[in-house]
Amino acid sequence: QLQLQESDSGLLKPSQTLTLTCTVSGGSISSGGSFWNWIRQPPGKGLEWIGYISHSGSTYYTPSLKSRVTISLDKSKSQFSLKLNSVTAADTAMYYCARAISTIGTVPKFDYWGQGTLASVSS
Amino acid sequence: QSVLTQPPSVSGAPGQRVTISCTGSSSNIGAGYDVNWYQQLPGTAPKLLIFGSSNRPSGVPDRFSGSKSDTSASLAITGLQAEDEADYYCQSYDSSLSGSYVFGTGTKVTVL
Question: Of A86, A102, A103, B111, which has the fewest Cβ atoms less than 10 A away?
Fold first, then answer.
């Protein structure tokens, strides 16, 4: 059974960089067809997809956050990470890591999720 | 704001049938992209409920079903149970701008 676990985030001040790591266990982070995603949810609000990195290292980000986001992969540690620069209060949210898997012609489905980690931005 | 619109809330008595709509446009559902659905119980991470518009992962009760038509998709819950009280989100792909995976606005299901 694949398991994903986010690192703790805690409290950040405006303009700082949010850094999170997701550790994957119970399966290979190098599996073909797998995409490793970050998704966030502001308190009391809906889900927002941030971006993904593929097993081969290709990245894709949502346009609204593209200028501030970097997702990287460390296969040796079975981890992938999120960096979000220049945070503001609007970035306060629960951050989830999730695996997406797809077959040709289908929209990837997020089938495994971490439990989430709350990142709060406040001065 | 999301490009996939859902009703904020729906409710039903135990045993009843409720449906949740997910309305998109020609750049997402109307372009032929599949829809996935997720259930989020209070204080927990979302769980995949329906994929490929109408397929259930192993372990998901057959009380849950999905469909898609034109620019919209729907999730139906038949035989509503107390444990179904949760938030539900649709998800698809949108080809506008630079393209992105998108979630619906979310629907709170209340069991009366």
Answer: A103
Q: A46 and B35: CB-CB below 8 Å?
A: no
**Residue B52, token pair as written in the block:** 């490929």
**B45 inside 8 A of chain A by CB:** yes
SS3 at position B28: coil
What are the Cα distances from residue A1, in Å, to A24, A25, A26, A61, B40?
11, 8, 5, 27, 20
Task: Determine the residue type at B62.
Answer: D
Buried b (16+ CB within 10 A) or exposed e, B15-41: eeebebebbbeebbbeeebbbbbbbbe
Closest C-alpha among A12, A34, A41, A14 to residue A80: A34
Tens of pLDDT, residue by residue over A71-101, are 999 999 999 999 999 999 999 999 999 999 8
Contacts of B85 (CB under 8 A, 6+ apart): B109, B110, B111
pLDDT digits (tens, 9 = 90+) for B3-17: 899 999 999 999 999
B45 in Cβ contact with A114 (< 8 Å):
yes
Distance from C-alpha of B31 to C-alpha of B28, rounded to nearest angstrom: 5
Contact status of A111 with chain B (Cβ, < 8 Å): yes
